[in-house]
Amino acid sequence: MGSEMCIRDRPTMFIAELHHPMFDLFDMSCLRTGIMAGSLCPVELMKQVEEKMYMKVTSVYGLTEAAPGMTATRIDDPFDVRCNTVGRDFEHTEVKVIDPETGEECPTGVQGEMCNRGYNTMKGYYKNPQATAEVIDKNGFLHSGDLGVKDEDGNYRITGRIKDMIIRGGENIYPREIEEFLYQLEGVKDVQVAGIPSKKYGEAVGAFIIQHEGADLHESDVRDFCIGKISRYKIPKYIFFVKEFPMTGSGKIQKFKLKDLGLQLCKEQGIEII
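Below the sequence we write its predicted C-alpha cells.
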C-alpha cells in the first residue's frame, strides 16, 4: 500500500513546481493534500494544482503574530469554499472584521480589517510596548492590516491589504481583484498589481506580469482583455513585463518594492508619468 503525502508551501512555490520543465516526468498520484499559506493564492492557480497535482488544496490565513493562523478551509469543504475563501476561524479563537475608521464590527458582507483574539495571538513584540500597542487594541484584538469580508456561512475572503490599496482620484482600488482577473489571461504565469505615483490622480494602476515561456503578450493585449470586463478606472495604466518579482529569501513577494520598480522601469523605457 503506497504512502500519501502533503505539500505545504507559498503560492509562488506551487507556480514554480507547476512550470518546472520536468514536471510531466514526475508521478503526482501519491499526493493527497496541499496547504497554501504565506500569501494570497490566485483562484486559477488553486484550480491548476488540484487538476494537475491530484491533491485537495486548503488555505491557511494568518500572520506570524497569530500562529499557526487565524482561519483555514477544511479538507471536506466544497471546492468553491476552498478556492474562493480562507475558511473559518480556528476553534476557541475569535476573528472579527472591524471597520478601520470606527472600530466597530462590520456586518456580514461588508469589508473591514481582519482582527483576531485568542490563544494564537502573540503576547506582544519583545521589549517594544509601543509597537505592540499599535497592533493590539484595548480589547485584545490583533489588527492584521489585511482587508476581508465574512460571508453568511462564516467563511472569510481576503480582499487585500490596507497599505496596498490604490487610491486613484478618490477611487479605492484593491490590487487582488485586478490580479485575479489578469491571471485568467492566456500567457500570464503570475501577476502583481501596485500603485504608481501619478501627478494627476495621486496614484495609477500598474501591472507587473511574468509570462509563460513562449508567450508573447503586449500591453495592448492586456488592455483589450480588460476593456468592457472591469471598470475603466481599474484597467492598468502601466503594464510591465518582468522576469521576476522582488522577493524575500522565503519566497514571499515584496509588494512594497513594486512602486519603486515601476518608476525605474518608466524611466528606463522613456514613459512619462502623468
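The first strand starts at residue 5 and ends at 9.
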